[in-house]
Amino acid sequence: MNLRGRNKVSATFSMSSMTDIVFLLLVFFLLTSPAITPNALDLLLPQAKGKSTNQQKASVSITKDGAFYLNKERVTKGGLAKALDEVLSGQQKPAVMLRAEQGVPIEEVVYVMDLANQRSYQLVLAVNPK
Questions:
Q1: 129, 51 contact by CB (below 8 A)
Q2: Domain count, the chain
Q3: pTM over 0.90
Q4: 92-125 pLDDT, tens per residue?
Q5: DSSP per residue over 57-107, as a string?
Q6: Which end of the chain has fewer CB within 10 Å, C or N?
Q7: Is 20 inside a domain boundary?
Q8: Would 13 be classed as within a structural domain?
Q9: Is residue 7 part of a domain?
């Protein structure tokens, strides 16, 4: 008399579904990572501790050679105030992200800070984390 069970359990494990999930996550993060800083130039920023979660609508970037950019568009120093007013008009709490490259004279940074202060814009200074 043969009393063995008819159901046999397989001891193998299939990794194909796991690799599919990992691949989909990789594609998702690769596609969404450029959206983290949409209005930013590639600048070498100074380092500091701390983080800000403020959402800004205008990003002012200053390069080493003294060029001013508002949301990736080059503007003159004199035309920066008018361009900021156009971009931030009609907002409840207008905020400006200031990105000054290392080596920029402090006078240029203070100029943008003064513009934001005169117009009651919230100003956030962007830095690289330590």
A1: yes
A2: 1
A3: no
A4: 888 888 888 888 888 888 898 888 888 888 888 8
A5: SEEEEE-TT--EEETTEEE-TTTHHHHHHHHHTT-SS-EEEEEE-TT--HH
A6: N
A7: no
A8: no
A9: no
